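Task: complex structure prediction.
Instruction: return structure tokens for all chains below.
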Amino acid sequence: MKHSLTSLLLVVFLLSGHTCTLGAEVINVADHGIVPGKDVTFAVNQLIQDVLDKDGVTLQFPKGQYDFYPENAIEKYRAVANHDNGLKRMGFPLFDCQNITIDGGDSTFMFHGRMVPVTMDHVRGATLKNFSIDWIRSFHAELTVVESNANEQSFVVQVDPEAYPYTLQDSKVLFQRFGQEDPIGSNIVFDPTTRAPLHNTRDYSVNSSRAKVTQAGGNRLRITDAVKKSPPVGSVLVVYGVHPTSRLCPAIHVTNSQDLRIENVTVREAGGMALIVERTNNITLDHMVVTSNQDHLVATRADATHFIGCKGTIKLDDCLFEHMLDDGINVHGAYVKIEKYLGDREFLCEISHFQQWGLTFAEPGDRVALLSRETILPFAETTVENVHVLNEHRFVMTVSEVPESLPDGPMSVENLTWYPDLEMRNNIIRENRARSVLVTTKGKVLIENNHFSSQMHGILIEGDNNKWYESGAVGDVTIRNNVFENIGFSGSQNYPLLASPLLNGAQRMGAGHYHRNIRFSGNTVKSFNGLLVQARSVSGLTIEANTLEFSDDYPAADPGPTIDLDYCDHVTIRANTVTGFARPLTIQQSSDTTNVTIEDNRGFHVVP
Amino acid sequence: MKHSLTSLLLVVFLLSGHTCTLGAEVINVADHGIVPGKDVTFAVNQLIQDVLDKDGVTLQFPKGQYDFYPENAIEKYRAVANHDNGLKRMGFPLFDCQNITIDGGDSTFMFHGRMVPVTMDHVRGATLKNFSIDWIRSFHAELTVVESNANEQSFVVQVDPEAYPYTLQDSKVLFQRFGQEDPIGSNIVFDPTTRAPLHNTRDYSVNSSRAKVTQAGGNRLRITDAVKKSPPVGSVLVVYGVHPTSRLCPAIHVTNSQDLRIENVTVREAGGMALIVERTNNITLDHMVVTSNQDHLVATRADATHFIGCKGTIKLDDCLFEHMLDDGINVHGAYVKIEKYLGDREFLCEISHFQQWGLTFAEPGDRVALLSRETILPFAETTVENVHVLNEHRFVMTVSEVPESLPDGPMSVENLTWYPDLEMRNNIIRENRARSVLVTTKGKVLIENNHFSSQMHGILIEGDNNKWYESGAVGDVTIRNNVFENIGFSGSQNYPLLASPLLNGAQRMGAGHYHRNIRFSGNTVKSFNGLLVQARSVSGLTIEANTLEFSDDYPAADPGPTIDLDYCDHVTIRANTVTGFARPLTIQQSSDTTNVTIEDNRGFHVVP
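Output:
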């Protein structure tokens, strides 16, 4: 009997496909002089260096606050997608290792300068768990409006100089952050009662280069010549600097890795995103939290999580993302410009967006699609044989075969191998600037049982080759049984679901449809503006059994049709219910939308 | 007979110690598509990559202009001493190779962007010859003064917008250079008749941050609120930007290399120095020229040549360096701060000057001296066993032995192994901002038969641990039979020879003398100010058989003693001759100067 059980366990273990970590070493970091109350950076860097070549080590931190300073930190030049590249000093430099676990024991890792707390590069099978990341000082400043003079378009803010030390010079305010002097730069007004961006916050946007800032006594600053409309007294102007120094410090940077887990990790602050992941195969976030600490309204300077050029499965369970200055999650690939066909199956390629410079776009063996740069519709597929990186901006890509004739117009390329599946269950994303979810991937997407309450779109399925260059026309998306609450409280025409390539500049719709097979069903939408779904260039769209309930949390608004279809095909709108609105809600479709079935809905008015 | 001769040649060859390059390959670059009239960057980068592992290759360029653009250039993050570190795009990326020769065939290599034309890193036995380096656009701007209003402290300059495109914004002028917008920043007024900095140019220095710049019609700009004294009509205000974007592009960067030759190479422009050399063993410059092209008064943004932490012999023969915005040559080591003794023979060290960050200060086997940070006098020597680089700023150095007790005061360290000999013969350095020669090295220095005419000191033997952190108290310097002409035409108290540690801030003189054994003899000094030698903390100084002739090229001046001795020992002043001065010239010595012999001089007056 006993023998059989052992055999069975062995079989199960072998079948599970995991790397062997039985008997793995657990290191109490206190045994290496890593204790609260001092700068542990050097000791942590050193201990990591010493264990990198071991398989299956756990670094166990006894609970406490551990302080990290930049002075003695390991540094490397790093390209970080969607951030500002540069020399990065690191708290946990995890390079080329496998099955390492950082178990924080519910500790706080407190950072004291411009650092990247965690870097994972060529890591297999790592787990980060049970810690929070915070900084001793914010990468933004929160300024409370104490006087608002609508007629003069000027207002006065109160600054806490302990939290946000500043200098005034030539009518400009500069915030001192970790050795830098940051101007106002990007900014948004928050509402301290909702801990979210103020309704219609765009009205109060400060023109940083035009703003004149003068002393108004007692750490109060008067801001003039900068706004169309003065923000109300009691609201909080959040200012967060300018490129190329405002996105230097994501909390966690992952690249070229696989089989990772982030579990019970909280990020309270970051000079960038909480988590940016590049070219990684399988990653699970379980109870990851991004939130502001009690002293601040705002958490991270940018997105909670962002994934570019990944594969395998991205899985998010039971996460909470709130108070960020950008999106909750964004999953996409990259459209890269083909600068020139050099002949001999070689293409000179140029990474299009400056915050993708340095990206590993492709490696030998990857399948890529060649596309029209204007319609972003593919005309050929081929396999990468070699990539010769010239600089962060350009590379030469050799492929296995090239079509007999290439189109006359401009071309782009996307990597088909590196698109992930996405599974999101039981997550909350709310009270942030911008969207809850952006997703463009050719993988299978399942978004269910989540709660979304974002200022702009709830879920944006976009894709563009003219602004962010985020690729990945979708092919299989299910969005079901989620709650969308007060989506679009920015006051613009923001939908719980918008699926449309971004068409601007030279972009235009091609003959084929861009996105395919999107199912939006069983969702509960609590709404002050009556918006549900906008779709353009989608073939295969089902909007089914959703409930749209009127909410009076924000002033009622009527910014557009409830369902808006433009150049879509095979659309089913069935069994949706509207309750509580004082006006009829509309379904609108363009004349080139085809094969639409609308049935059994309650409370809609179909516009011909 | 024949046999014997062959044997003899073989013996001579073997004894000469050169690496075998018989039968070395000569490649005509035209055979690889590298021809004038197109962007050759990619092809040159590629060809270099293909030959790096060969020994003794010559790349032969047929005469012509070859154009290099940054778009497709190979790029690496590079720390470059005395420059601004960052991503560098390269024309000739020479890494890890030996006995390569780049023979330009008298061609011009024309650069079209922010690039480093030549990089040599871990190169043995290379030769660069027969080419000139130029840029399509300057890293500075030359603005001709067309109106000068002394009473208003304002003036008007004429700008050539083709050569120096600019924008005006908020009363500031920004010059567009290769994608950057550079403010006035550093500046100096040149005299177009002498093609050198104007006499007393400091009077006209423009305060860039205070300056108000407005349109004065027809590409004329009025500059107000910026100068103590308006520069004269006809003079040329040269403006050259600010750190950290004003020293990104030296023309030639050499590091960790040995046995190099630069021969008949001309540098007409650089966004930094013409040549910066780090940690290199033996380098010869023969007929190297730094000069401005016909369109400009000014050549390089910084020094003609600069050597930090080298060994072997630095040899300069028949070079011409003129019209630079900084020194002709500077040879020195680095004083590095000891932040903390960590115990176990480990020192936490910090590179002191921000433009030395990233320097390879030492490697295992190097002898280093530990010194008082204040007096820069050594108290111990030891050998480096390990260097663990933490970041560009700090490293941990393990040494073989540590004194039983370390001093209480702050400590520094210098590298004794990496000090070179310097031989300079038959060179001309003139018409530049700043000095002709700076040299601090423990090696043997011979400077003979050169012609120097610089705005500040002729030869500066300094060393400091509080500003530039340039180490290398000298021990054997001979300066003979040179001509010094109008040294110090900046108008300050600048000497043909100044030998003194820079004492400022916390620096102070120690009990021992800092410099030793300097001989200044047989030189001809043509002077409007009657200055010859100033020395402080020198033991062993001979000033002999020099001729000091009055020159009326600049207004006669009397800024200080002709020979000025402060805390010197063993000084001989013998057989020097003064002619043509209307006043008696003085020799002055401090009361703590000892063992002075003054004899057989003509035209001097000794001040007690």
